[in-house]
Amino acid sequence: MSKVSPHIDLGTGYVQISRLPFDQAIKIREFIPQSSILSFNTSEGFIADVLEYSQYEYWFDFHHESYEADFSI
To answer: Which residue of 31, 51, 59, 62 lies most exposed, with the fewest beta carbons within 10 A?
Structure first.
């Protein structure tokens, strides 16, 4: 599964967890503490379940890849 690109609003990069590929959304919710999940207003309106892109990138690079390796044959 590929790394998603960040949404950028007011100079902040973020990903909305509910818009991630299904397997990533499930796995990242298990890994990330609830206190790291944000909600805020953007130029598009109010959005919930947001994660800073740097946190998503860290998770993807160091944890998501290890999940993928567990299922390979």
So the answer is: 62
